[in-house]
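In response to reviewer comment 3 from the previous cycle, which asked for concrete evidence that the modeling workflow produces usable outputs, we include below a single protein chain processed end to end. The sequence was submitted unchanged, and the resulting structure tokens are shown without manual editing.
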Amino acid sequence: MTLSARALRALLLLAGVGLLPACDEEVDYTEKDGAGDDGSADDGTADDGTADDGTADDGTADDGTTDGTDGTDGTDGTDGTDGTDGSDGTDGTDGTDGTDGTDGTDGTDGTDGTDGTDGADGTDGSDGADGTDGGTDGTVPTITPISDIQSGAAGLLAGNGNDTFGDAVTVRGVVAHTALESGFYLLDGNGGEYSGVWVYTPNRAATTGDTFDLLGLVEGSQIELMATVEEYAASSDASGQTLTELYVTSPAGMVTIGDWGLSMPTPDLVTTADLAIGAEAWEGVLITIEDVNVVAGPNSFGEFEIDDGLLVDDQLYSWPDVLEVTGTFTSITGVLTYTFGAWKLEPRSAADFGAYSGPPCAADLCMGDVLPGDLIVSELQNDVADSEDHCEWVEIFNNTSSSIDLNGLVLDDGEGTGSVSSSVIAPAGALFVLGKASAADWATLCPTTSAYVTPLGYYGGDPDFSNSGDNLDLYLPDGVTLIDGTPGPLDASSTQTNSFSGDLLVLGVDNTVNDSISDWCDLAPSPGVANADCTP
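The workflow returned the following structure tokens.
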């Protein structure tokens, strides 16, 4: 049976099936003025949230219950398809359905991405800051061993400490003694050859409270410092020998006092014969010399000579007691250094000296027994016809009733120092002469002078009296305790025929009798004989 179009349409309507208008059928949009689409059927009942306002998409079913998969809620953005309702002109309210875009807020479920806050655990990446530690560790300086510097093994370029400066180094060591303002000796803590060095700190006391003063370096302090390597020689030293030193040019170079497990090394046992062959290897090192013989008493610089020409200096400590030539020490400990053309031992305290024994004494008094005034200068010959480097002389009066062994007696004119270096016995109450240089020199170089004077003993190459006038002081072997001194300058008017003589007509007076220049006369030499009266 064939149904007409109208009948078919009626059947479909009865069945509840809606039809789209035919393409040629006129559509009256006035029916959609809101009556059927203004909310009655599409204003939210089906599209404004009733079915899509969150019931199914606003979190009830998608608000995190299935977190993680919620990323799929981004599909809710498909509700934006409701925006198609935006085609309902007025249903711009349906644009509120765009609020369904708020379902995009389900994207807030992306806040579940806050789980990504676990990414904050990436802050653990701050552990990467530990990598900074690695960088800091990279700034730790390389420590150069003192022995490598002294031996030359480090291959460092050295300056002269004056107008050129050498390579920079960082060293650690233990301080050998209480520091001086000019510096200190630094030891590596191990001992042996090349194990010490002089540290020069010219700016240590330059400003009040500067770094150097605050360090308070004492014996045993452990220190790390930065300095330049120098080879120093005094301008007056033509030997070519130099002193290796670490030159700290700024207080900032003194880095820190710390504890690097170092300790004061046991002094190395060395002989003066070893040093005579190879002293360089022991420069700056703490050493001990045993069975020491005193060869010459203290000079004007406070140094006394021991075996093989080695000097014992007073840079760090001065021996306070009498020293007599041929006296002995069981041992002397100190740091070896080189200055002004000579190798020197630098004891640090009284503890560095072993027991001292004076020489055998054949007289009633040894120099250790002599008191101020026991010996008095009575005549001075500073201008002679023979060699003045060898033939000058002085007359001295023994102002005691005892014989005196002059071994160790020190003579000083303020510019040079000499001493009697052998046993010379001055008779009690006698006038006697001491000659310059030695007996051998006088025998060959002093014929005119030796024709009228015979020295009892000799005092070496100094003092070297000035022809224009000079004075003379006598000291105990310590070089400090004054026995007698002359006024000055004493000036003889001509060579050989005259000398300057003290007014000692009366023997037995004290050492103040000729302390005035008026008590001295320009007279003919009278060695060994009481002088004439100087009174006009």
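Residues 1-138, 206-211 have pLDDT under 50 and may be disordered. We consider this sufficient to address the reviewer's concern, and the full set will be provided in the supplementary archive.
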